């Protein structure tokens, strides 16, 4: 039996609001039925990757999230600026072993990277 990556899930305070941020950033519409408790993007609308789910939880795990998204863009500096304009916080810039990326935090503090490429 083969496993398939079906979704990436974020624990959050406001699922609809966080889905809106990621929808704007990735250019994928929020799926119907989104509310503060549960929302998704990429389940109803075709994407090149897995769906992303957002679930309201009473006690998010403190500290660095164990799972994060790695995004890549040829116009990566423009995409970093766009993410910040949408509400992300720039956490740091890195250049290691030929890889160049910036780590950001979404409006609820979930980390993600945008790499040159």
Please give a structural write-up.
The protein is α/β, with parallel strands linked by helices and 117 residues long. The chain folds into two domains: 7-58, Signal recognition particle alu RNA binding heterodimer, srp9/1 (2-Layer Sandwich); 68-117, 2,3-Dihydroxybiphenyl 1,2-Dioxygenase, domain 1 (Roll). 20% of the residues lie in helices and 36% in strands. The protein is built from two helices and seven strands, in the order E-H-E-E-E-H-E-E-E. The strands form two sheets. Strands 4-7-6-5 form a four-stranded mixed beta sheet, with helices on one face. Strands 1-3-2 form a three-stranded mixed beta sheet, covered by helices on one side. A hairpin with a 2-residue loop joins strand 5 and strand 6. The longest helix has 12 residues, at 15-26. The relative contact order is 0.20.
